[in-house]
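Annex B, item 7. Sequence and structure tokens for protein A, then protein B.
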Amino acid sequence: MTTRTVAARASPRSARRERRRRQLDQHRARQRRHLARRAAGRVVVPLEVDEQLLDFLVRLQWLADAQAHDAAAIAEAIVALLQDAAEADRRSR
């Protein structure tokens, strides 16, 4: 019996159960990541970025021009910039 045949024979109830199980697994994974971040003293913040900030990051070489549309690269550049500024501030005290 192929997987396709088994899937075709699954009842609507079992399909709903499987979908709900996957949703719960995803929820639990998100919650574990949230708790791990919180335990480490980190938070996730939504951030809207405009062209001016992107140009600034590229001009100062915190972000490559080719990465200006990559959300993960933009986030990494902003975090690196802020960490560097915080470290400079810490050293100046």
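Protein B:
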Amino acid sequence: MMKNVCMREMMFTIFRNSSGARKTKDILEGYKVNFEVRRLKVGDFSWVARDNVTNKELLLPFIVERKRMDDLGSSIKDGRFHEQKVMILEKKIGCKPS
């Protein structure tokens, strides 16, 4: 019998209100990618590793924030871009099941 074996499940997470979420979900389902839709504090997409025994989760340091060119310009001007960058760098991130 093996002890202390930690099974990990990798999961792609999608921000629930992300534009294009339906298309992304369809693509992921087509490739049989494990994913969940959640509320994310930062970004549109992220990756989570889950321990199958304890159900503890680790948010991996890969976050995708999609921006159209006009939105990028606006977010730089109004400070949202800097706020999002700081939140990511300070690890003030997390996700809650929807």
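Comment on protein B: Confidence is low (pLDDT under 50) at residues 1-5.
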